[in-house]
Write a structure and sequence with these properties.
With 218 residues, the chain is α/β, with parallel strands linked by helices. It is built from 9 helices and 8 strands. Helix 1 packs across helix 9 (203-217), helix 2 crosses helix 3 and helix 6 crosses helix 7. Bound molecules: BIS(adenosine)-5'-pentaphosphate. The site of BIS(adenosine)-5'-pentaphosphate has 35 residues, from helix 1, helix 2, helix 3, helix 6 and strand 6.
Amino acid sequence: MAKHLIFLGAPGVGKGTQAQRLAQLMDLPHVSTGDMLRASIQSGREIGLRAAAVMESGALVGDEIIIGIVGERLSLPDAAAGVVFDGFPRTIHQAHALDTLLAAHGDEIGAVLHLDLDDEGIVERLSGRRVCSKCGAIYHIRYHAPAAYGVCDLCGGALLQRDDDQPAIIRKRLAVYQAETAPLIAYYHERPTYRLVSGEGEADEVFSRIVKAVGAAG
Ligand code: AP5
């Protein structure tokens, strides 16, 4: 039986940074719907073409597209022991769909890790973020700078700023989070697997809290 882990939280709170680390520690695939959509855009796939304008605007891509790509991803052999979700589910409809999908496979949610940070911290993190165009590694110009300016430490790829990390789009994404994703907190809150984790402080500190929370969630 697979036990999947979910990262819940506002844009820029640190879900991707922490999900990559946790996936590595637990030897599980890191499943980021944002990364999957960006890969579809880069490769010119139909889904990417449909999602590109929506993502640039800061709105959410349609539930049916997202549920479709997650369903496909979970059917791959490497998801058999569980995955670390990053950025999914993001609406109540997606959360229901995930519950239905997991029930059909006899799988469970091992932990819902709700990362929390104030808006000021979020805007600072997003406006300084740089992402490797080749391997997806996440940097920050102040908090996690690469050794050589603009170059990924891991693969030598060019570091770029995401199109949706512009101030006006960041504000829109935060508003969309409040309207469409924050209701998921109430959806998961009463479950024994729900854990609220402070996203404040250095990434190592936050990671220690997460590892503890996953252990406590069983
Ligand atoms: P997605 O790619 O999922 O973006 P997001 O949820 O907006 O989250 P971010 O990637 O912006 O932030 P994060 O929390 O991962 O933070 P990070 O670790 O990078 O989605 C993009 C778009 O795709 C959506 O707007 C939507 O259109 C679409 N989409 C995706 N999934 C969807 C879904 N399920 N349904 C519908 N549409 C969907 O950290 C941010 C920065 O902070 C980095 O620079 C990092 O280095 C730094 N940092 C991290 N931790 C710390 C720390 N502790 N201290 C200091 N700096 C830190």
